[in-house]
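QA checklist item 7 of 12: single-chain prediction sanity check.
[x] sequence parsed
[x] length recorded as 315
[x] structure emitted
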Amino acid sequence: MLRAMEYKDYYETLGVKRDATQDEIKRAYRKLTRKYHPDVSKESDAEKKFKEVGEAYEVLKDPEKRAAYDRLGSGWKSGQEFRPPPNWEESYSYRDGGSTAEDAANLNDFFASLFGRAASSGHTAFHARGEDLHAKIQIDPEDSFHGATRTITLQGPEVDEQGHILTRERILNVHIPKGVTEGLQIRLSGQGAPGTGKEAAGDLYLEVEFKPHPLYRVEGKDIYLDLPVAPWEAALGATVKAPTPGGVVDLKIPPGSAAGLKLRLRGRGLPGNPSGDLYVVLQIALPPADNQQARELYQRMERELPFNPRARLGV
């Protein structure tokens, strides 16, 4: 016969309503175990609360145990003296045939009386999926244009067999998909923090950043290239070589081009559906006046060309 005991409201322990979904219960459990884990929590009663949370979850995560627990009704409050209804234990107990008196003595009276050896001997068995981890990875624009595999080294927490948290170095090969843009996250399944108990590890999310590049700037899926051209190429028009991530191309410069003119190469940006574009921004490069012949040529241009670069400024 079950004796009177202190009633424990497992829903209150997890901070959820009695009609909470299994997902809500799981999320509350994960949040609280992170908060009260003895290895990381600074609260004085963290270990006690950690065990209480585990005890509550052990019942509420199991639909059959939860249904049995719910039959007790909501008329009791935590801390009140409670005596289960007659024959409740015979109808709704979850005893393990291998349970011993020593095992039962190690369990909370209320939990042990309701469900016997549902928890592990001496302590509650805690299971929680590992946390997701986040980091950044820097790549070249060419890595996104062609796709690539890069090796990264990470330092992350791991839990040893004694439950202590250690920092260990890991080397991972990361596949860079074609067309990946800055800010996008690459997910590495199972490479996050290890799980507790039988639960799986979390995932690792790598946020993509582009390294500064000597030639290209990337904005979304579009690539920008500053291309120097000679004054006569801009003035008279020309066909010049221009580098792109996909290889060197012949680029036609229209006559009368000014500095800052953008020439669009459709579909030559980062690949995708649709692909981005490549914009060539013209920069006028002046020959240096570093010898007598060059200086005389500039002086002749000054005399013979009616050119005022500040005319549009009204001066």
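[x] summary fact logged: The first strand starts at residue 5 and ends at 6.
[ ] second reviewer sign-off
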